[in-house]
Amino acid sequence: MREGPRRQTTGSVPHIQLDAELVSAVDEELRRRAFQLPGVENLPSDRSLPGARGLALSDDLDLARTDVIAGSSEFAHIHPDGSLHVWLAVDSAIEVDDKKWGELHPWVGRDGFWDGVVMVYTPETLDELDITIQILVDAYNFVTGASLTPDDIP
Q1: Contact 94/74 with Cβ under 8 angstroms?
Q2: pTM of this prediction?
Q3: pLDDT, tens digit (0-9, with 9 covering 90-100), for 113-138
Q4: In a domain? residue 13
Q5: Each residue of 5-55: pLDDT tens digit?
Q6: How far apart are CA 138 and CA 92, in angstroms?
Q7: Which residues constitute the domain of residue 142?
Q8: Residue 12: inside a domain, yes or no?
């Protein structure tokens, strides 16, 4: 369970965090670790606002759940403020929301939109970063069928 109050967001699209406090060293480590996942490319997001970086899966990577990211190669993206949208198994997304590490995307429940999309709040400490990376690895594993742990990321 994440301590403290829930973060403030727009609650609508564009879905952004309003009270993010970017900590440069934490953000740099988030991005370094995120883009070390095997077969993940650092590209401009094709699903978010300008400035967001997409975690795009390379074409030669076999995917277990192409239905989840239909129409894109992104399974996540990092916003300029360090918050992320990730595509998770629905129960995992609900757990992230319940434990206050993030919130469900406003379009969850809408026809044609994956119900496991969640915004993960901006990590501000290295401990929060560890949880964020775990959530990101869970999303990667869900879409690719891999079984990585955060320790597998150098």
Answers
A1: no
A2: 0.97
A3: 999 999 999 999 999 999 999 999 99
A4: no
A5: 999 999 999 999 999 999 999 999 999 999 999 999 999 999 999 999 999
A6: 8
A7: 24-147
A8: no
Read off the CATH number of the domain in which 94 is found.
Answer: 3.90.1150
In a domain, residue 7? The reply is no
Domain count, the chain: 1
Whether residue 93 contacts residue 117, with contact meaning beta carbons closer than 8 Å, is answered with yes
Residue with tokens 């319940």: 98
User: Which residues lie closer than 8 Å to 55 by C-beta, 6 or more apart?
Assistant: 34, 35, 37, 40, 41, 42, 74, 75, 76, 77, 78, 136, 140
- Give CA–CA dist 84/62, Å, rounded: 23
Under the banding of pLDDT at 50, 70 and 90, the label for residue 79 is very high
- 51 Cβ partners below 8 Å, 6+ apart? 79, 80
Contact 40, 53 (CB under 8 A): no
- Whats the size of the chain, residue-wise? 154
Asked if 64 contacts 144 with a C-beta cutoff of 8 angstroms, the reply is yes
